[in-house]
Amino acid sequence: MPSAGHSHWMITVKKYAYLLVVIPPALLLLSQWLWQHFGYPDLFAFLVLGFVFGLIPLLDHLVGQDPVNPDEQQEVPRLSEEKFYRVLTLLCLPMQLATIVWAGHVFMTTEMSWVGQLGWLLSVGTVGGIVAINVGHELIHKDPRLEQWAGGALLASVCYAGFKVEHVRGHHVHVSTPEDASSSRYGQSLYAFLPQAYLHNFLNAWKLEAKRLQHKGFSAVSWRNELLWWYGLSLLMTAGCGLLWGWMGVLYFVAQSFFAFSLLEVINYVEHYGLHRRKLESGRYERPDIQHSWNSNFLLTNLFLFQLQRHSDHHAYPKRRYQVLRHHDESPQLPSGYAAMVVLALIPPLWFKVMNPRVEGYYQGEEHQLASA
């Protein structure tokens, strides 16, 4: 165990290391600078992808695991109240909006083949997955209205505002049960998972919001339906891109959104693969806890993702702020960080070879549970 002094030092380092979130958008700027000076725009358009899914997995294993958990009695209350952490996530909203506009301008004004255009859209979508969806996920779990609105606006910037409703009121209630389409099953490939995840996220968000309004005596088709506002904001952003750049602007905005929310659903696939909550004698499922999500404690990716990889603690305590999420050795552990696991998930035979033995090992002695996973 690290000493108290080492723990305090690491927490201070991590506080400012969360500023690494600016690197993915900055890499888009670097991409443009490189092709302006050296040419090869079709190659440098993929720079963000190479960094996130190529270099980061290697650095994860070189940097290693995060050795520090904040102390529950002293550090967690103090860190939870520090404004720096909240301000940093809120500033991601203007950064994301600026990135979309600037990257759209580059997309329209740079001569690239379809390969380069695809690389640019994938890169912008990856930035959206990190900045818009990951930070939006952090904010929608918080109570202050400003954070709720900022989280909704971030998700609207990638056309996935239904996640704001479905994730909190649906996924966190039904996680790791057959009722949750965002929890992947044992033996299910990513490509079988994605279509149902897309559809479920959209439809269940509307069902949950309609149910909330009906309980209050209001119609689902009213100004009180928050989904109408968030999807309206997405439509407004799409129209803005259309006014700026015509139909190609609309294509750009929709495509970067698709790649961003697809990255979210790939990570959903990774986070809960093969795990499930047991059904009690009462017919209810056991409470979500630290054994119902895959955990990853690789320091570098956790800094980029505001500790999203400490996902087991997040599901056990959804209101916890990112800076105080804790690692649990007893949670099921991924063999690498999310960046590497996303690449692995894209290749089902490799995914099954790596992950199925881990799921089976986790349920060793009660293999009958795998039939319910």
UniProtKB/TrEMBL annotation:
<feature type="transmembrane region" description="Helical">
    <location>
        <begin position="251"/>
        <end position="270"/>
    </location>
</feature>
<protein>
    <submittedName>
        <fullName>Alkane 1-monooxygenase</fullName>
    </submittedName>
</protein>
<feature type="transmembrane region" description="Helical">
    <location>
        <begin position="44"/>
        <end position="63"/>
    </location>
</feature>
<dbReference type="Pfam" id="PF00487">
    <property type="entry name" value="FA_desaturase"/>
</dbReference>
<feature type="transmembrane region" description="Helical">
    <location>
        <begin position="114"/>
        <end position="135"/>
    </location>
</feature>
<keyword id="KW-0472">Membrane</keyword>
<dbReference type="InterPro" id="IPR033885">
    <property type="entry name" value="AlkB/XylM"/>
</dbReference>
<comment type="similarity">
    <text>Belongs to the fatty acid desaturase type 1 family. AlkB subfamily.</text>
</comment>
<keyword id="KW-1003">Cell membrane</keyword>
<keyword id="KW-0479">Metal-binding</keyword>
<keyword id="KW-1133">Transmembrane helix</keyword>
<feature type="transmembrane region" description="Helical">
    <location>
        <begin position="84"/>
        <end position="108"/>
    </location>
</feature>
<dbReference type="GO" id="GO:0004497">
    <property type="term" value="F:monooxygenase activity"/>
</dbReference>
<keyword id="KW-0812">Transmembrane</keyword>
<keyword id="KW-0408">Iron</keyword>
<feature type="domain" description="Fatty acid desaturase">
    <location>
        <begin position="113"/>
        <end position="341"/>
    </location>
</feature>
<feature type="transmembrane region" description="Helical">
    <location>
        <begin position="16"/>
        <end position="38"/>
    </location>
</feature>
<dbReference type="GO" id="GO:0005886">
    <property type="term" value="C:plasma membrane"/>
</dbReference>
<dbReference type="InterPro" id="IPR005804">
    <property type="entry name" value="FA_desaturase_dom"/>
</dbReference>
<dbReference type="GO" id="GO:0046872">
    <property type="term" value="F:metal ion binding"/>
</dbReference>
<keyword id="KW-0503">Monooxygenase</keyword>
<keyword id="KW-0560">Oxidoreductase</keyword>
<keyword id="KW-0997">Cell inner membrane</keyword>
<dbReference type="GO" id="GO:0006629">
    <property type="term" value="P:lipid metabolic process"/>
</dbReference>
<feature type="transmembrane region" description="Helical">
    <location>
        <begin position="227"/>
        <end position="245"/>
    </location>
</feature>
